[in-house]
Amino acid sequence: EDSTGTLLSTALLFDLDAMELIGEIQMNHARKEASIHTLPSGQILMAGGIGADGSPLSSIEIFTPAPTLE
């Protein structure tokens, strides 16, 4: 959500170990309050949430984060 309350279709990736923002992902659907899980493969699963029109979403999105450069 931006500062005006508009839902965004971009998810920010944050490295908890390094405590820093490491990138962003473009989602197919703007959503908030989704359930987010890291899969054993390292992929990120986003499920459900609330869509831009305020309706519950039943869709999922799976992302493969790009490796970070060191």
Provide the fold topology.
Blueprint: E1 10-15, E2 20-26, E3 31-32, E4 35-38, E5 44-47, E6 50-51, E7 60-63
Antiparallel strand pairs: 1-2, 3-6, 4-5, 5-7
Query: In terms of structural class, how would the helical and strand content be classed?
Result: mainly beta
Which outline best applies? globular
Low-confidence runs? none
Relative strand content: 35-45%
Q: Helix tally?
A: 0
Structure, explained:
- It is a single chain.
- This protein is mostly beta strands.
- 0% of the residues lie in helices and 41% in strands.
- The protein has no helices and 7 strands.
- The chain has strands at 10-15, 20-26, 31-32, 35-38, 44-47, 50-51, 60-63.
Keywords, separated by commas or semicolons:
two-stranded antiparallel sheet, mainly beta, 3-stranded antiparallel beta sheet, 0% helix, 70 residues, globular
Compose a concise summary of this entry:
Helix content is about 0%, strand content about 40%. The protein has about 70 residues and is mainly β. The chain is globular and about 35 Å long.
